[in-house]
Specification:
With 382 residues, this protein is an alpha/beta fold. It has one domain: Alpha-Beta Barrel (TIM Barrel), CATH 3.20.20. The protein has 14 helices and 12 strands. The strands form 3 sheets. It has an 8-stranded parallel β-sheet. Strand 4 and strand 5 form a beta hairpin. Helix 7 packs parallel to helix 8 and helix 12 packs across helix 13. It starts with a helix and ends in a 6-residue tail after the last helix. 44% of the residues are buried.
Length: 382
Amino acid sequence: MKKRLLCLALALVCLGACGKPAATGEDTPPQAENQQTTDIPPAPEPPADPAETYVDSLSAEEQVAQMFFARCPETEAAALAGQYNIGGYILFGRDFEGQTPASVTETIASYQAAVKTPMLIGVDEEGGTVVRVSSNPNFRAGKFLSPQALYREGGMELITSDTKEKDALLSSIGVNVNLAPVCDVSTDPGDFINARSFGQAATETGDYVKTVVRQMRADNMGAVLKHFPGYGSNIDTHTGIAIDERPLAGFRDGDFVPFASGIQAGAGAVLVCHNVITNVDPNLPASLSPAVHELLRRELAFDGVAMTDDLIMDAITEYTDGADAAVLAVKAGNDMLISSDFVTQYDAVLAALSSGELDQSQIRAAALRVIRWKMDLGLIEA
């Protein structure tokens, strides 16, 4: 009996030992404790947008001033630019009369030295009948030819070389924007705008515009497409109101084509004319019409600088005075206002901002587009 019990005990001991895992000399930690916890670093913050950073460093007053492409005053221009930090000056024929390249270069440099934010310095040097600089023989032996004359003489090759020469001359004296090319479609020599246009149908005009804008971008010269949405056969808006009753479909099929070509080629700005486009907005000139600017932004997908033609032209003053026109122009969606009455119009926009008639976010968005353009032209370090 004792022998049988002893055998049973030994069997139980053996069974227990065989059922246990082999000893390792250390405890095996639970699986959860054996895993290492890895911390995932947060995603890096996107780099700050330099244009937004720059705009936010400007006061509300300075942001408003950036929206003005003012006609350069005859006296105290540097002092005025420095006082307000104006967005830009446009020079006209009078600014080159009796001057030399050296004297104009020195004068423009004085404007740039006076301001906190580098200025756009613009001219209308289209060629042909509009030649602010080359009309002075001190700057060029002969006036730049019109687009039509250039094309007849040497095709697109001569258009390209002429644009390159023009850009080099303007850059050499401190001009960084040429208010060109003219995108208006006109095949009738009797049209007011014809002599300034390419003089051919929409597709051919689009090819011309694309050629010019590409060369201007290569030369780092600011391009301004004008006169949106297309001048047609209308009268001169310097001297009166032009009513355009053409259907919108005609603009889409024709007039918009050269503007679309210029936008795709990288033009930084579009100038909006003062014509009343009755089938878009029968009550306001295009430059003051939100509906016209909506076409530019949505249908042509333009996100650059939209600017008015001069707000003291008769086509505007017959509708409203200069102060009201400036506020209406901002409400319409313009980023820059071409102004021959800067102080009056600046004060009007600032007063409308202070009263709440204009929203600060709209002013900031406009100033942001201007600053982006300046950065694109290398005037401000990006």
